[in-house]
Amino acid sequence: MSVKWCSILAILLLFTAAGTAGAQPGTRYVGQLDPDGLPTMTFGGVRLSKVDPGHLPGIPKGFAASHAAYAGQFEWEAAGRGGKVSVVVVEPTNGSRYACLDLDGDGTYQTSECAVFVPGQQEDASDPEIRMSVPARVRPLRRLPLVVTWPSVPANKGPAGPEREIAFTGAVYVRGSVEIAGRRTQVTLRASLSKGGLIDPRNTTIGIDADGNGKIDPRTVPLEATDTQDEDLVFKVGDRFVLIRSVDPGTGSFTVEERPASEYIVIDRAVGATVPDFAFVDFSGERRHLSDYAGHVVLLDFWGTWCGPCVAEIPNLAATYEALHHRGLEIIGLNIETPSGPIADVPKNEARARKFIESHTMPWIQATEVSVRDLALKRFRVPGFPTTILIGRDGRIVSVGAGRELRGDKLLPTIEAAMGAR
User: Fold this and answer.
1) Under CATH, which number does the domain 279-419 receive?
2) pLDDT in tens, the chain (422 residues)
3) What are the domain boundaries of the chain?
């Protein structure tokens, strides 16, 4: 056999081996969760009432001097003795503001339960914070984080006298990693502390490093973070399609399973991607399709009457539609009145939306919630409301609103530029 044919054969064998080493639906990988929880950026809040600093209950030595003190109680599902945490915030005459939290519910404050507020690391860095690491009472967690912030707000006066407010982390996430087809992949899952640490992948918040950059970002594509609601959600990780099949709360191990590419139903909101055709029903009962507007520039507007920012954008949408509709702009409003959980009352929701649309200047097409709910929440996985997506005349995504370019006074020029000269 000639050298040439040997080389060709070697190349063919190489490609054959690569093909057999590819995705294998049904293959399972086992990962491990870190026993130390992560704080969420989601906060609850509670008002504190001013109390006599001379009667503070059991403040440890070194934390007693005070000028003003505020006390209250908040619910935290990981706390002992009923899930309530008593808290006192003290502003000394000289020195730094501090807080003490009765984390074990024994009615006293230990030195380990007090801390001084420091510059914040949350989304609003202007708000001072304290960070506590609390022994966990649920498996597989070992320690739980609790972040308490002191919002930069002036004192208020309530029925019982002056009040202040604190905010706190309302949930806990666990982080882990798993090797998928030779690549170490980071995963985060929300733990249900009220259910003994149970993590149900079908009903939780999942984050997975789909692009392999070592970070989990809900704004990137492929999809990296979302809530699941009674569903097996398949993610695209590299060239594999996987779902988190199960989590063992006792050991902290979790299982990831490869699935066929056909089970990846997410429409990735990526500039340049083609939006697949979809059907919807408008408020007159007519069945329509996205493909009905082929050759047009189409703005998809995911909104709800309950959403203040959505309502605030209506004048901008109306002005843009009036200016550019005759040049080929179509706006499709995708109404969602119940953004989470099952729809409680379909006729009531539809009647509310219909009345709102009729009483406002919204002459563009509107899709009913029932007809687009799965499209919005399970396929586009919209991260919040309003979400807007601009589709060009060729059916490809032109903009997903990065930098608020599909909001406010940027909306009209952004769409005008996408329409081109005609």
Assistant:
1) 3.40.30.10
2) 444 334 433 333 333 333 335 668 899 999 999 988 887 765 678 889 988 877 777 888 888 888 889 999 988 766 655 678 899 999 888 888 999 999 888 888 999 999 999 987 765 456 889 998 888 777 778 888 888 988 765 555 555 556 788 888 777 888 999 999 899 999 999 887 666 667 899 999 999 999 999 999 888 889 999 999 999 999 999 999 999 999 997 889 999 999 999 999 999 999 999 999 999 999 999 999 999 999 999 999 999 999 999 999 999 999 999 999 999 999 999 999 999 878 888 999 999 999 999 999 899 999 999 999 999 999 999 988 999 999 999 999 999 998 899 999 999 999 999 988 55
3) 43-170, 185-263, 279-419
Taking alpha carbons only, the member of 384, 30, 340, 380 closest to residue 187 is: 30
Cα–Cα distance measured from residue 240 to residue 31, given in angstroms and rounded to the nearest whole number:
16
With beta carbons less than 8 A apart as the criterion, state whether 86 and 103 touch.
Answer: no
CA distance 384 to 315: 20
CB atoms within 10 A of CB 265: 12
Contact 392, 420 (CB under 8 A): no
Answer for the pair 31, 256: CB distance below 8 angstroms, yes or no.
Answer: yes
Place of tokens 């989590």: 247
> What six digits make up the tokens of 336?
């969602």
Spell out the residues 6+ positions from residue 291 whose beta carbon is closer than 8 angstroms to its own. 277
Cα 172 versus chain centre, distance = 14
Give long-range contacts, CB 8 A cutoff, 24+ apart: 261-267. 261/23, 263/234, 264/234, 264/235, 264/236, 265/234, 265/378, 265/379, 266/222, 266/223, 266/234, 266/235, 266/236, 266/379, 266/380, 266/381, 267/379, 267/380
